[in-house]
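Deliverable D5.2: sample structural annotation.
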Amino acid sequence: MNILVITQHIFPIQTPRSIRSTELIKELARRGHKLTVYAVLGDYDYRHFEQKYNLKVKNIPIHWELAPYNSDGTAKRNFIDKVTGRLFRKFEFPLMEFYRRIPGIIKSEKPFDALISIAAPHHIHWGCARAKAKYPQQFPKVWIADCGDPFMKNGTSKEHLPFFAKYERAFCKECDYITVPIENAKAAYYPEFRDKIRVIPQGFDFDLNSIGQTSVKNDVPTFAFAGMFYADIRNPKLFLEYLSSVKNDFRFVVYTRFDSLLADFKEKLGDRLIVKSPIPRSELIEELRKMDFLVNISNANSPNQLPSKLIDYGIAGRPILDINPQSPDKQQIDAFLNGDYSTALKIENLQDYHIANVVDKFERLLSKVAE
């Protein structure tokens, strides 16, 4: 099958959506599909990747500066970009450029059998809907709009102007399927389009035989968090405040790109808080296996989202301490620090997240082409 994939990021940058896109295209290509992938590429040389998987990788011709990275992880924003981004954020600048650029991509290519567009940003879906209206003869036979976090009804903020609801309704109307990672996400989409929604989890390439609860006992309790913090929905402040009051020794290792919310606690916790830069996923999982337990800071007021790092935690096979950022359970924290993991968060059915099982579900949707 001849498939067009449009996404903002693919590897080497490490984000949930880039991992989603990269693992998906690799597995589809391994199964013999002919893929053309458009993303915002940067300077990374994809020739070896193209040869290995027999696919084409092309750049989305972004001219406005988008926040904040290309797929190679390089920041291209200058001072003016940052100022204009803040001033016009309410008007979906600069991400609105995807809406303008994607129709030109579809017009320039020969017709494909299928299109998979991947958000965030949702502006990619908007651009695909615009392309379908402008170039219906060029548009693929089946369109899957894959969504991570919801847009208008994301439950985490009121940052989107009501005006932009029409763009979300347009893509929901025009696509054939809307894929979301968890069942709860359905409630974040308009009721009239929920019959199009299919649940397809985040996909990862991992050895199913390597999963298991191993026995780890460090000299002092050693635990880790991997991912990003957010001031509004995933703020570690109260958790760190409680850790600052703990008298016993421990080591809390944090792998994150943005550590501004940790600044006030670096002095308080001293060498008990170890902040590291992100590392490749395969290396990270091996490091997580060495921990006594792992920490998840849940998304406050956001039941429609599931941090993809929980799958990595599950693969690592260590107990998971799930923290409500608004009201951490101090007794539970104490229990974990003392080696009692009886209340650990369980990640069920890890095999559902294996990329082979995920792509099986995508292929069933794509089979509409043959009808």
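Annotation notes: The radius of gyration is 21 Å. The chain has two domains: 2-204+354-370, 208-351.
The annotation will be released with the project's public dataset once the embargo ends.
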